[in-house]
Amino acid sequence: MSSVQLINIVKNYGQVKALNDVNLDINSGELFTLLGPSGCGKTTLLRTIAGFHKQDSGTIKIDGSEIDDLPAYRRDTGMVFQDYAIFPHLSVGDNVGFGLRNKNVPPREIKDRVAEALETVRLSGLENRLPNELSGGQQQRVGLARALVIQPKVLLMDEPLSNLDAKLRIELREDIREIQKKLKTTTIYVTHDQEEALVISDRICIMNSGEVSQVDTPWTVYKNPEKYFVASFVGSMNFVKWPRQSWLKNNPLSLKEISLSSKGVVLDPNKENIIAGVRPEDISLTSEPIDKDHQNIVMSGIIEKISFSGREAFFHILLEEEVRLLVNVSRPDELSLKEIGETINLVFPKNALMFFDEKSGSRC
Ligand code: ATP
Description:
This protein is α+β, with helices and mostly antiparallel strands. It folds into two domains: about 5-235, P-loop containing nucleotide triphosphate hydrolases (Rossmann fold); about 240-355, CATH 2.40.50.140. It has helices at about 40-50, 90-100, 105-120, 135-150, 165-185, 195-200, 220-225, 230-235, 255-260, and strands spanning about 5-15, 15-25, 30-35, 55-60, 65, 75-80, 155-160, 185-190, 205-210, 210-215, 240, 275-280, 285, 295-310, 315-320, 325-330, 345-350, 355. The protein has a six-stranded mixed β-sheet, with helices on both faces. A five-stranded antiparallel β-sheet has the order 13-17-14-15-16, with no helix packed on it. A four-stranded antiparallel β-sheet has the order 2-1-4-5, with helices on one face. α2 packs across α3 (about 105-120), α2 (about 90-100) runs parallel beside α4 (about 135-150) and α3 (about 105-120) packs across α4 (about 135-150). The mean pLDDT is about 90. Adenosine-5'-triphosphate binds near residues 36, 40, 42 and 192.
């Protein structure tokens, strides 16, 4: 088990600032995910750690020792690539044992370690197959076994599931999580898929334009985003420019009671540059009148659209002032009988509201 420290990492490609002063502490034994939209610098950061190219400035440490001047093959990292990158002319066994042969490990030990790695990734018995005799999911398992067999200090995974279909992606991500928990190999995992990141990670680093937006557990990133960008990228969120008065007019709560910052401070209702957010699943719908209390925000709106998928439904509701809210109902029941154009009541706890500064993007 090894820790990784990234200190003030900068990497430019000409005018493009791919990594802009990245600082991260990755704990020993954790599965740490770099998550962000295309072009935010995830792959550049992973390849910098692997040593495939060098940062312009900054330092990388593994277990407290600088590795900046070590070539890739001496960094004690194993890499799993998006396109598997296995040798087509070598059998599964020879692909997995490749790194060990390069290190002059004795043949007997190679055989045992290859067998063990294949068992770990559930490919025992397929040693003699060629890659083109395997499914995509099996080929990526070979990629994983090949990285694990060298017992790297740090496992680096670059979008390992993106070439697989949806069902296989779910199956393999569960396996990767289980294997990583068992072996406790420190793992840095790159994905642009927020659901995959939430399911697989111990901690997630959300990146935006070469910078770190937030580092936290999946639960905290989702429930307590520190930035507008994080709230909008992870999960879905309704955003409304604040304060909007008239759609709250029948509400028992005053604007002052609702407009509380994450630290419980009353936000200035006259401030123009605040955005409020609420998750679609935090809002409940009902045809019945709602008892007004001092914990919940209550309003009514008109159903504009319903997307029903059996297990859940999404309601698009139009409130006054042309404000629209998306509502996720996990057990639609009789609500699915509602028609477009009907009026419906909405309720959500006042503490489900989050506020962001429009200019800086930071949570208020
Ligand atoms: P994706 O999810 O699409 O792979 P990413 O988050 O991994 O994206 P990077 O591939 O790290 O992003 O790219 C970061 C930025 O650096 C992008 O603006 C990209 O266009 C640029 N970039 C990456 N590699 C090079 C290169 N070899 N030459 C010039 N620009 C590059």
